[in-house]
Write a structure and sequence with these properties.
The chain is an all-alpha fold and 232 residues long. It has a domain at 73-143. It contains 8 helices and no strands. It has helices at residues 2-18, 30-35, 43-53, 56-68, 73-97, 104-116, 120-193, 199-231. The radius of gyration is 35 Å and the shape is rod-shaped. The chain starts with a helix and ends with a helix. 19% of the residues are buried.
Length: 232
């Protein structure tokens, strides 16, 4: 079962890595240190859970920031503005020729138009260049978005597999806890049943009981961690 979770996880991480979205190894996620306390119960499954949970924030951040930033609208606006400027300037040039001549102010206006916006032919070339660039980037960004979303779906699969694994770990933790409670009961009964005068023997029995109580506390802590993990 752990291998299935890791298959989803590795596939998801490889997709992000191919896009250059996996940062260099940083600080270990706090949850990893907590989950390390469960490795004695089931090392393989707990390791798979820890690896998955440690990257949850990365995947949420990638989907939130990368997908939401994929906007092409500004360059489409540039195309629209260029078409509008061509239409307006062409209309102005037609109006200039209606009286059969172009006066000095109109000539200055035409020179200023070419200097600031370029002539109409060059603006059509610019529109073509922008459109081709947008079309290329659209394909690239659509493919990038698809890869990111597929990575997130794989990660969701890893999370679901981790949920299944955590229920198995919880079952083992509960079994260990119950067994520890029985051991404490037996050790306590041994102390209560001791009726001899050998103080050293009584002390040994009490020490054995105290060790069992300590083990019980550890098992109870592990059970609570496993329960919190499975509940979330």
């Amino acid at each position: 079962m752990a291998s299935s979770a890791m298959t989803y996880f590795d596939r998801a991480m490889n997709r992000l890595r191919d896009l250059g979205l996996v940062p260099e190894q940083g600080e270990e996620a706090p949850i990893v240190a907590l989950l390390n306390r469960l490795t004695a119960l089931d090392e393989a499954n707990v390791t798979a859970i820890a690896r998955t949970m440690s990257q949850a924030s990365l995947f949420n951040e990638v989907v939130r920031e990368q997908v939401s930033s994929m906007k092409l609208g500004e360059r489409y606006d540039d195309i629209t503005d260029a078409f509008n400027s061509i239409r307006d300037d062409a209309k102005g040039m037609v109006e200039q020729l209606e009286d059969g001549k172009v006066d000095t102010f109109e000539r200055i206006g035409n020179i200023w138009m070419k200097a600031t916006r370029g002539d109409i032919a060059s603006r059509f070339d610019k529109i073509k260049d922008i459109y081709l660039a947008v079309a290329t980037d659209s394909r690239d960004q659509i493919e990038r978005e698809r890869t990111i979303l597929e990575a997130y779906q794989d990660f969701r699969g890893a999370l679901k597999e981790s949920e299944i694994l955590s229920l198995g770990v919880l079952e083992k933790a509960e079994a260990h806890w119950n067994a520890a409670k029985e051991e404490v009961g037996k050790a306590s009964e041994a102390v209560a049943a001791f009726a001899g005068d050998d103080l050293a023997e009584r002390a040994r029995l009490e020490l054995a009981r105290d060790e069992k109580v300590r083990e019980l506390q550890d098992d109870e802590d592990r059970y609570q961690i496993a329960k919190d993990l499975s509940d979330n």
